[in-house]
C-alpha cells in the first residue's frame, strides 16, 4: 500500500504560515524568499542521462481498468458502502476492478458521516452542516489512486438526517491526481454544490410535506381530544385519554422540531463557507431561500392555532409515537396530508431514497453532465493535460493576439474560465447573476509531497495537514478551524475571538488532531487523506449565528484585503510565478526521453504500449537527430519565453516538440482521441482542424510552392483558390484556413466556394476564396474580375497546379511548409503549425507594442528614422528578411487594429495591400 | 499574362485589347496602399464634395446624400429627402452663418440646404419650374445661384431674389463667378455673362451683359483660372482662355488628336475621330497649368508659355471624367474605364527621339480671324513639350469612376457608377497613425 501525498499548491505564499506545523513554515518560508526561482521539480528538469525507467507511460500498466473514471458511492445505512454509478457508464472502463471494494475504501476515509445526533444542550435536533472533504488515497495493490470528494446530503428519513456520499476520480496515475488536485477539487466542488443545492430544495419540499402531515395529524388528534372532553370528565383521565394527550404533545413537539429544521435549512446560505471552492449560483440560492422562507411563514402562521380544517376522522388515534425521532416516520409523497402513525417503521424495511430522489432531478442531471464533462477534460495522461494547461494559460495571457490564430478562445474561456470563476448552475441562470469570485489560483504542484512511512503516522499526518493547509492558502482566514475534527462550534468561536492567526495555534490544533485521530479505528494508516476543511459544524441557532458573525469580521476583512493584495500582485507582475516553471516544465516533459537512451526508451514504450501507441515509423526519424540539438539549449529556464533568433534551432525545436506531443497524445488518449479536447473549443472544430491540417500536409507535400501560398495568406494577401471541382477546392480552402490570420470565430474571412464574379468588397471581406472555374460567359466575367484585381490577389489554380503570387524567398515558412517534411499525421502537423503561428503572433505582438518602433523617441526623428529602426528590428533582432517581415507587419497591423477598434464598429475594415509584381509558380 | 489561368481565349483577347496602357503591378511610387470600401448608395454616385478636413459628402442618382468621415470611413449622416437623382451639390458657408452647409439640387425640382453636422434639412424649396442643373455659391454676398432653364439668385434663407429665363433647350449647364459681381453661365455653345446689381433696398437684379459664342460645339467645362482668366472647353475639343474682366478670348486651342503618332497610341489608331474622342469633359487648373480631360486623353496647357506642356491621347481606356492637379508635375485622372491613374509630367529624356506629337490647331486670334484659321502646326513645333508618364493606378471600382476628391495626405475618395465609394489611403501613414493611437490608448488604459 502506498501513501499518497496531497497536491501542494500555493496561491498565497505569504499567508500559509499561519497554519500547519513548523515543517510547513519552513517550506513556505523558503518559498517566500524566492517565489520566482522556486526549484524546478525534479521530474521536469532535464537530466543529461535520464534513468531508463523514466518512461512516463510505463507506470499505468498494472491497473485493472483501462482509463480514468469517476465513481459515485454512498455509505448506505442499510448495506454499507456501495457504488452507485460510474462515469463513463461503461463496464469495460472498469474492467475487473472491484468497485465494491473500492467503494468501501473510499467511503471509509470519510470520518464525518459518523457524526449523528444533537449538539449537547440544544433542544431540537440539528442539521449538521458539513463542508465537503477532499481526500486523496491510493491503493497500490489495485494500482488505483483516487481523488475522493465526500459530501453529505440531507434526508429526512436518514439517520441524523444525513446521507454520506462520495465522488471519486479514479486513475492509475498517482501524480495525475496530485498535480491536478486543485482543478479536480474545483470541478468536484461544483458538482457537489450542484447536488447539494438540489438536495436542499428536495429536503425543503420533504419537510413541507412532513409538516403538512403533522399538522393534519395534530388537528385530527385535537378533534379526538375534543370529542373525549365532550364525552365527559370521567373519560378525561382514562388511560386512553392520557395516551391521546401524550400523542398530541408528541406531534406538537414534532411540529416544532420540523419547523426548526426548516429554519435551519433556510439559514444554510447565511453560513460562512469555509470551503474555498464552494461557490453556488446566487440566484439558485436566493430562490431556494425564498421558497424556504415562504414555507416558514406559512407554517409559522398555521402552527399557533392548530386550526387545520379537518375533513373527516379516520379511525381512533394510534399508540403514542416516538416524537423525538421523526425521521423514521412514514410519509407519502403527495400533497394530501397523511395521518402520521405513531409507530416508526423498521430501519431496514424502508426504502432509502436514491440519489436522484434526494436531489432534484434537474440538479442531478446537471451534476452528471458536469461530471461527464470533468471526466472528459481529464482524459489523457498528465503530460498531455499539463501541456494543454500550459497552452491555455499561455493563451489566456495573450488575449490581445489570440484573435489571430486562436479563434476559439472565447469558447474555451467559457468552458474553462467559467469553470473556475463562476459557480456552476444547474438551471442555467445567467452568469451575471452569479457572484464573481476570485478564482483559487492554480499553480502546478512544485512537487507532490510523498510520504510512505506508515510506521510514523504522526509526522505523515502533519505533512498532510501541511499540504492541506497550503492548498487552502487561498482562503486561509477561514482555516483556523479547519484542522479541528470534532471541535464544536462554541469552542471554535471562543478561540476565534482571540484572533489567533498564529502558527502555534495551528500547531495546537494539529496536536489535538493527532491525538484525536490516532485511536480512531477508521483511520487507516495506509490510507492517507487530504482534507480541505475537515471541520464539522452544527448550526447554531439564529442568535448564535449572529454571534458568530460578530466575531468574525477580522477574518473577513482580512480576506478582502488579502484578495485585493492578490489582485494587485497579479496586475503588478504579469509573469505569474508559476510561469517559468511551466515553461521549463514543458521542456522537461518534452525532453524527458532525450539523450542517448531516447530511442530505446521510445521503443520500450512502444513495446509496452503496443495497444495504444499507434505511431508511424517515420515519426521517429526527426526525433533521433533532434535530441542532441534540442536538449542543451533547453537548459535555460527562460528558453520558453525567449524569442528565438536562430531560426534553424527554432525549427528543430519545433519539430521535436511536435512529434513528442503527438506520441503523448496517442499514448494517452488512445482510441477516442478525436473526442478529447485538445485546446480547441468544439470537438467538431478540432476534427475539422485535424482534417484541415492533414490536407494542408498533403498540399505542402504535393506543391513545391506551398510556402508561397502560405506566405500570401499570412502576409494578408487574398488567396483565390481556383478550380472546377468543388470538393477539391473546398478541401484546399479548409486546409488553408488554418493560415488565415484573424479568420474570425466562424471563419468570416474565408469563402469556401464562390461561383460568381467577385468584387472589391469581397476582397476586403475575404482573405481566402475558393472560386469556381466555369467555362461560360459568366466564367469569362469572373476571369475578368480575377485579372482586374490581380494586384490584390494571389491565384492558386488547382486544376493546372500553378500559383500566381509575388515571389517569396523568406526562410520563416520553410519550417511549416517543407514538402520533404517528416511529419505524417494531421494532428502532429496541426500542433506544429499552431506552435509556429503562436510564435509568429508573439513576435507580432512584440512588434505592435514596442514603443520605439512606431513612435519617435526624440523630437528630431522623422518617419524615416522610425522606419529604419523598425526594419532593423525585423531584420537584425528577429532575423527576418523582407518578405518574412511583411508577415509580421501584417500581423502587427491586425493586432493594432484589433486593439484600437473592437470588431463591431460601423466602418468597414481597411484593406491593405502593396504594389508588387507577381510571378507564376509551376510544379 | 493571364493565359495560364484562362481556360479559353475569349476573355484573354478582351483583356489584351483593352490594355492601352499598363503600368503593371510594380508601382513603387503609388502610395495608396490601403483602401476602404464605403457602401451605402444604391445607384451611381456622381458627386463628391469636401466639407472640411475630414468630411466629405457624396451624392448620387439614388437621391441620397451621405456624409462620411474619411479618417475612419464611418458614415456620419444620411441626408434623405430627395426623391430623384441629385443633379448638383455644393458646400455653402455664408459668413453670417458660421458653419458649412450643403446645398443639393435634384431632378425632383427641389433644392435643399442641409446641416452636415446634424443631418437636418434646414431649408428647402420645391416645385421649381425646372430642375436645377448647376449651383453656385456666392458666399461673399450670402447668395447662391441655381442654373437650369432659369437662372435664379437666392438668399441664404432660400428666398428667391431674382429670376432670369434663359433661352435654348439645354439651359445653364455650368456657372462660375467672375470679378466685379459678374457671372458666366455656359448655355449650350455660348457663354453668357451676367451682372449682379444690388439696388438700395438690397434688391438683386441680373443683367445679361454679353454672349460669347466662339465655341463651335456644346460647352462642357467652364472654370476660373485666376482673377484675370477663365477657361472653357467644348465638346469639339476647343479650349478657350478668356479674359475675366473684358471677356475677350485670349487663346483658342483646338485639340485634335492626330493620327500620325508613334508609340503607344499608334496601336489604337482609329479611322475616324468621333467627336467624343476630343470632347473636353473636365477642366482643372492650379493657376499655372490647365489640365483638360479630352476624350480618353489628357492635355496639359501651360499658361506661362502659352503652349501645351504635355499630353497623352490614350491616357485611359475610356473617357476621362475627372482630373486633378496634385502639384506642378503630378496629376490624377479618373475614367469610365473604372480606374484612377496618377501621372507625372516628365522631361523627355533626350531630343534624339523627338516625341512626336499630337496635332493641335493653335490660333491666337482676334474675333474676325476665326474663319480664316491658319493651318495647324505639328506638335514638334513645341520643343518644350514634356511627356506624361503613368506612375500608378488605382484599380478598385467596377464601374466608371465619376469623380474623386483629394484630402492631401489623408487620402483620396473616389466615387463610381458601381454605387461604391472607395477611400484610398497611404498605408504606411495610416499604420503610423494607428500605432500612435495604440500607444495613446495604452497610456490612457494604463497598460494592456
Automatic annotation (TrEMBL), chain A:
Residue intervals of the UDENN FLCN/SMCR8-type domain: 60-896
UniProt-annotated stretches for the region Disordered: 311-335, 479-553
Biased segments, Acidic residues type: 319-328, 533-547
Keywords from the UniProt entry: Autophagy, Cytoplasm, Guanine-nucleotide releasing factor
Listed InterPro entries: FLCN/SMCR8_DENN (IPR037521), Folliculin/SMCR8_longin (IPR037520)
Compositional bias annotation for Basic and acidic residues: 506-516
Location of the protein in the cell: Cytoplasm
PROSITE patterns named among the record's database cross-references: DENN_FLCN_SMCR8 (PS51834)
GO molecular function: GTPase activator activity; guanyl-nucleotide exchange factor activity
GO CC aspect terms: cytoplasm; guanyl-nucleotide exchange factor complex
The keyword Cytoplasm appears for this protein: yes
Example GO BP: autophagy
Top-rank taxon: Eukaryota
Family, per entry: Belongs to the SMCR8 family.
Name of the protein in question: Smith-Magenis syndrome chromosome region, candidate 8a
Automatic annotation (TrEMBL), chain B:
WD repeats: 57-78, 102-124
One Gene Ontology biological process: regulation of autophagy
Keyword Lipid metabolism: no
Gene3D superfamilies hit by this protein: YVTN repeat-like/Quinoprotein amine dehydrogenase (2.130.10.10)
PROSITE patterns, sorted: WD_REPEATS_1, WD_REPEATS_2
Key words of the record: Repeat, WD repeat
UniProt name for this protein: WD repeat domain 41
Amino acid at each position: 500500500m502506498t501513501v499518497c501525498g496531497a497536491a501542494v499548491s500555493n496561491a498565497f505564499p505569504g499567508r500559509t504560515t499561519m497554519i500547519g506545523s513548523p515543517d510547513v513554515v519552513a517550506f513556505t518560508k523558503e518559498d517566500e524568499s524566492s517565489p520566482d526561482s522556486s526549484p524546478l521539480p525534479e521530474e521536469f528538469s532535464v537530466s543529461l542521462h535520464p534513468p531508463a525507467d523514466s518512461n512516463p507511460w510505463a507506470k499505468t500498466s498494472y491497473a485493472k481498468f483501462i482509463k480514468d473514471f469517476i465513481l459515485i458511492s454512498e455509505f448506505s445505512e442499510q448495506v454499507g458502502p456501495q457504488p452507485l454509478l460510474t462515469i463513463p457508464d461503461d463496464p469495460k472502463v472498469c474492467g475487473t476492478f472491484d468497485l465494491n471494494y473500492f467503494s468501501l475504501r473510499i467511503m471509509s476515509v470519510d470520518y464525518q458521516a459518523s457524526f449523528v445526533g444533537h449538539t449537547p444542550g440544544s433542544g431540537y435536533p440539528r442539521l449538521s452542516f458539513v463542508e465537503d472533504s477532499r481526500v486523496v488515497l491510493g491503493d497500490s495493490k489495485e494500482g488505483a489512486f483516487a481523488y475522493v470528494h465526500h459530501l453529505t446530503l440531507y434526508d429526512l428519513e436518514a439517520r441524523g438526517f444525513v446521507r454520506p456520499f462520495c465522488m471519486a476520480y479514479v486513475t492509475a496515475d498517482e501524480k495525475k491526481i496530485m498535480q491536478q488536485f486543485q482543478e479536480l477539487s474545483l470541478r468536484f466542488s461544483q458538482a457537489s454544490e450542484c447536488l447539494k443545492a438540489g438536495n436542499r430544495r428536495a429536503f425543503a419540499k420533504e419537510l413541507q410535506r412532513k409538516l403538512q402531515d403533522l399538522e393534519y395529524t395534530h388537528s385530527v388528534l385535537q378533534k379526538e381530544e375534543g370529542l373525549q372532553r365532550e364525552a365527559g370528565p370521567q373519560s378525561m383521565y382514562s388511560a386512553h385519554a392520557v395516551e391521546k394527550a401524550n400523542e398530541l404533545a408528541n406531534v406538537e413537539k414534532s411540529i416544532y422540531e420540523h419547523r426548526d429544521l426548516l429554519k435551519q435549512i433556510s439559514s444554510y446560505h447565511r453560513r460562512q463557507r469555509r470551503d474555498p471552492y464552494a461557490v453556488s449560483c446566487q440566484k439558485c440560492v436566493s430562490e431556494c431561500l425564498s421558497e424556504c422562507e415562504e414555507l416558514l411563514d406559512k407554517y409559522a402562521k398555521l402552527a399557533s392555532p392548530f386550526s387545520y380544517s379537518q375533513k373527516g376522522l379516520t379511525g381512533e388515534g394510534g399508540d403514542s409515537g416516538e416524537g423525538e425521532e421523526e425521521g423514521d416516520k412514514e410519509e407519502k409523497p403527495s400533497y394530501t396530508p397523511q395521518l402520521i402513525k405513531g409507530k416508526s417503521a423498521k430501519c431496514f424495511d424502508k426504502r432509502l431514497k436514491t440519489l436522484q430522489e434526494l436531489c432534484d432531478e434537474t440538479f442531478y442531471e446537471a451534476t452528471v453532465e458536469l461530471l461527464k464533462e470533468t471526466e472528459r477534460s481529464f482524459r489523457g495522461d498528465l503530460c498531455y493535460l499539463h501541456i494543454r494547461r500550459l497552452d491555455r494559460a499561455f493563451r489566456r495571457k495573450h488575449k490581445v493576439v489570440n484573435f489571430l490564430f486562436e479563434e476559439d478562445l472565447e469558447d474555451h474561456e467559457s468552458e474553462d474560465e467559467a469553470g473556475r470563476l463562476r459557480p456552476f448552475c444547474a438551471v442555467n441562470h445567467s452568469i451575471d447573476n452569479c457572484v464573481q469570485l476570485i478564482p483559487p489560483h492554480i499553480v502546478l504542484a512544485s512537487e507532490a509531497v510523498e510520504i510512505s512511512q506508515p510506521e510514523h503516522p504522526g509526522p505523515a499526518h502533519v505533512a498532510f495537514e501541511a499540504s492541506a493547509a497550503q492548498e487552502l492558502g487561498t482562503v486561509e482566514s477561514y482555516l483556523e478551524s479547519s484542522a479541528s475534527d470534532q471541535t464544536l462550534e462554541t469552542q471554535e468561536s471562543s478561540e476565534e475571538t482571540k484572533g489567533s492567526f498564529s502558527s502555534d495555534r495551528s500547531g495546537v490544533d494539529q496536536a489535538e488532531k493527532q491525538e484525536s485521530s490516532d485511536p480512531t479505528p477508521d483511520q487507516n494508516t495506509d490510507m492517507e487523506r487530504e482534507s480541505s476543511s475537515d471541520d464539522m459544524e452544527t448550526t447554531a441557532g439564529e442568535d448564535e449565528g449572529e454571534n458568530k458573525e460578530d466575531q468574525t469580521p477580522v477574518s473577513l476583512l482580512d480576506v478582502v484585503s488579502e484578495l485585493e493584495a492578490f489582485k494587485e500582485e497579479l496586475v503588478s507582475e504579469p509573469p505569474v510565478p508559476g510561469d517559468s516553471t511551466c515553461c521549463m516544465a514543458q521542456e522537461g516533459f518534452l525532453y524527458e526521453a532525450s539523450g542517448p537512451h531516447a530511442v530505446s526508451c521510445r521503443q520500450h514504450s512502444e513495446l509496452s504500449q503496443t495497444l495504444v501507441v499507434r505511431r508511424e515509423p517515420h515519426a521517429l526519424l526527426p526525433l533521433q537527430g533532434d535530441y542532441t540539438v534540442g536538449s542543451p539549449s533547453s537548459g535555460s529556464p527562460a528558453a520558453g519565453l525567449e524569442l528565438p533568433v536562430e531560426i534553424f534551432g527554432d525549427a528543430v525545436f519545433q519539430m521535436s516538440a511536435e512529434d513528442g506531443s503527438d506520441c503523448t497524445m496517442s499514448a494517452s488518449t488512445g482510441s477516442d482521441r478525436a473526442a478529447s479536447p485538445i485546446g480547441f473549443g468544439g470537438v467538431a472544430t478540432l476534427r475539422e482542424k485535424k482534417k484541415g491540417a492533414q490536407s494542408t500536409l498533403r498540399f505542402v507535400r504535393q506543391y513545391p510552392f506551398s510556402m508561397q501560398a502560405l506566405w500570401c495568406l499570412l502576409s494578408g494577401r487574398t488567396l483565390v483558390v481556383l478550380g472546377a471541382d468543388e470538393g477539391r477546392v473546398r478541401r484546399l480552402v479548409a486546409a488553408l484556413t488554418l493560415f488565415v490570420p484573424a479568420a474570425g470565430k466562424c471563419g468570416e474571412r474565408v469563402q469556401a466556394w464562390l461561383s460568381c464574379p467577385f468584387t472589391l468588397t469581397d476582397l476586403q471581406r475575404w482573405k481566402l476564396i475558393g472560386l469556381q472555374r466555369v467555362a461560360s460567359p459568366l466564367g469569362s466575367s469572373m476571369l475578368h474580375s480575377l485579372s482586374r484585381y490581380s494586384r490584390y490577389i494571389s491565384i492558386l489554380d488547382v486544376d493546372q497546379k500553378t500559383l500566381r503570387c509575388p515571389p517569396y524567398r523568406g526562410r520563416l515558412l520553410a519550417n511549416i511548409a517543407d514538402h520533404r517534411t517528416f511529419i505524417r499525421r494531421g494532428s502532429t502537423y496541426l500542433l506544429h503549425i499552431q506552435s509556429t503561428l503562436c510564435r509568429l503572433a508573439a513576435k507580432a505582438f512584440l512588434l505592435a507594442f514596442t514603443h520605439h518602433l512606431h513612435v519617435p523617441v526624440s523630437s528630431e526623428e522623422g518617419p524615416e528614422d522610425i522606419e529604419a529602426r523598425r526594419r532593423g528590428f525585423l531584420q537584425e533582432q528577429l532575423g527576418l528578411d523582407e518578405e518574412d517581415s511583411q508577415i509580421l507587419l501584417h500581423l502587427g497591423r491586425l493586432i493594432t487594429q484589433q486593439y484600437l477598434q473592437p470588431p463591431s464598429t460601423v466602418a468597414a475594415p481597411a484593406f491593405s495591400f502593396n504594389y508588387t509584381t507577381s510571378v507564376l509558380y509551376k510544379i | 499574362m493571364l493565359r495560364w489561368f484562362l481556360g479559353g481565349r475569349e476573355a484573354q483577347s478582351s483583356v489584351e485589347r483593352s490594355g492601352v496602357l499598363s503600368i503593371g503591378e510594380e508601382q513603387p511610387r503609388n502610395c495608396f496602399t490601403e483602401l476602404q470600401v464605403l457602401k451605402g448608395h444604391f445607384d451611381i454616385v456622381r458627386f463628391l464634395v469636401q466639407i472640411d478636413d475630414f468630411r466629405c459628402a457624396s451624392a448620387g442618382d439614388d437621391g441620397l446624400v451621405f456624409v462620411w468621415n474619411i479618417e475612419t470611413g464611418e458614415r456620419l449622416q444620411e441626408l434623405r429627402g430627395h426623391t430623384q437623382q441629385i443633379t448638383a451639390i455644393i458646400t455653402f458657408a455664408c459668413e453670417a452663418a458660421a458653419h458649412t452647409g450643403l446645398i443639393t439640387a435634384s431632378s425632383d425640382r427641389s433644392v435643399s440646404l442641409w446641416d452636415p453636422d446634424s443631418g437636418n434639412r434646414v431649408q428647402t424649396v420645391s416645385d421649381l419650374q425646372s430642375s436645377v442643373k448647376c449651383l453656385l455659391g456666392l458666399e461673399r454676398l450670402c447668395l447662391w445661384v441655381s442654373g437650369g432653364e432659369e437662372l435664379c439668385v437666392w438668399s441664404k434663407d432660400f428666398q428667391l431674389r431674382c429670376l432670369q429665363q434663359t433661352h435654348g433647350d439645354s439651359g445653364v449647364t455650368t456657372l462660375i463667378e467672375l470679378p466685379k459681381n459678374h457671372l458666366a453661365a455656359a448655355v449650350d455653345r455660348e457663354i453668357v455673362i451676367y451682372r449682379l446689381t444690388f439696388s438700395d433696398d438690397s434688391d438683386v437684379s441680373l443683367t445679361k451683359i454679353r454672349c460669347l459664342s466662339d465655341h463651335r460645339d456644346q460647352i462642357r467645362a467652364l472654370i476660373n483660372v485666376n482673377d484675370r482668366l477663365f477657361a472653357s472647353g467644348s465638346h469639339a475639343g476647343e479650349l478657350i482662355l478668356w479674359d475675366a474682366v473684358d471677356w475677350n478670348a485670349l487663346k483658342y486651342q483646338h485639340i485634335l488628336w492626330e493620327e500620325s503618332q508613334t508609340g503607344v497610341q499608334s496601336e489604337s489608331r482609329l479611322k475616324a475621330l468621333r467627336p467624343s474622342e476630343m470632347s473636353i469633359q473636365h477642366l482643372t487648373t492650379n493657376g499655372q497649368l490647365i489640365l483638360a480631360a479630352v476624350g480618353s486623353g489628357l492635355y496639359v496647357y501651360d499658361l506661362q508659355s502659352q503652349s501645351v506642356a504635355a499630353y497623352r491621347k490614350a491616357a485611359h481606356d475610356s473617357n476621362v471624367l475627372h482630373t486633378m492637379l496634385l502639384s506642378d508635375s503630378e496629376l490624377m485622372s479618373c475614367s469610365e474605364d473604372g480606374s484612377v491613374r496618377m501621372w507625372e509630367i516628365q522631361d523627355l529624356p533626350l531630343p534624339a527621339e523627338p516625341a512626336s506629337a499630337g496635332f493641335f490647331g493653335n490660333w491666337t486670334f482676334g474675333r474676325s480671324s476665326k474663319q480664316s484659321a491658319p493651318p495647324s502646326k505639328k506638335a514638334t513645333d513645341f520643343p518644350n513639350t514634356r511627356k506624361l508618364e503613368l506612375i500608378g493606378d488605382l484599380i478598385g471600382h467596377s464601374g466608371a469612376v465619376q469623380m474623386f476628391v483629394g484630402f492631401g495626405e489623408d487620402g483620396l475618395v473616389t466615387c463610381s457608377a458601381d454605387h461604391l465609394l472607395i477611400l484610398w489611403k497611404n498605408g504606411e501613414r495610416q499604420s503610423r497613425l494607428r500605432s500612435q493611437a495604440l500607444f495613446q490608448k495604452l497610456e490612457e488604459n494604463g497598460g494592456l
